[in-house]
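Shipment paperwork, digital attachment
Item: protein structure file
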Amino acid sequence: MFKTRSTQARWYTYASPGDADVLEEHSGTLPPPLEGHATVEVITSGINHMEVFLRNGKEQTWADDGWPRGSGSDFAGIVVARPPGESRFPVGSEVIGHVRTGAHATHLTVPVSALVPKPRNMSWEVAGGLYLAGATALDTLDELRIGRDDIVVVSAAAGGVGSIEVQLAKHWGARVIGTCGDRNFDYLRQLGIIPVRYGDGMVERIRQVAQGQVTAFIDNFGKDGKDIADALGVPDSRYRSSADRREVELRLLREDPDSMLHGTTQLQRLAQLAQDGAFRLLISGLYPLSDIVDAYQDMARLHSRGKIVLATRPVTTYRTLRARDVHEAMA
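Attachment content:
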């Protein structure tokens, strides 16, 4: 059972740009939450590629922020404190939330406007990794208005964002083709997605399985996507590049009231869609928070399906051998 009353916290920050090894653990006592805020004991938090780009300097948005800087935007946990008079989310509430930075912690204080109830049938692992990947997928599909008349191609279809995009597109009636490496074929087939191998001849392979005109192309891979979409006859208005994905993610991390409200609205939709069975988020790696560097190094190999998540109170820190580790060793 998780403790629900604690003000002692641990969190990770970095004092200079760099790889994950610049992250340092700190500890201290959080002050009581102010009006409109709540303190949450974090149970799980996700990791994302955007956090890497912000940390190593490849992404210059918020480059003028002071030092040290926090890490992490996705989290799920239990409300442990709220100010007098706050009626939302009583102490003990299980919640999913989002912040621009600082989610890689055991506790954090956030606006209650950034929280939604965690469905009781949703695992902590899924809840903690849901926000940025899920909201990015949902925003992209909303922009393209994907529906029953669509044949959509999604690249990097087994990744965190791509795997949610393909499942939601299928849920809304589209015929969905996912491009990937051979080892992800069975995974996509289990989701009802048509897998197509990367590499030379991919355009023709897509045409063979499309059974009609491809109407939309979502490029999460970032290589030759526009050329492939053009060859398939996809209109420019229905093509989304990895640069477009970057813009979506940065919008979802903004802290102005309108952006925060939009992010929370999308998070609420995602929680409901997951509860309704519209998609399943695969967790391919679960690391103790103290192993945050190893978790980022795992993600950097670009071989994980779905999401990698950190846990503040894992049942065990023993690591089991994963199928993808065996595959990599044999490759």
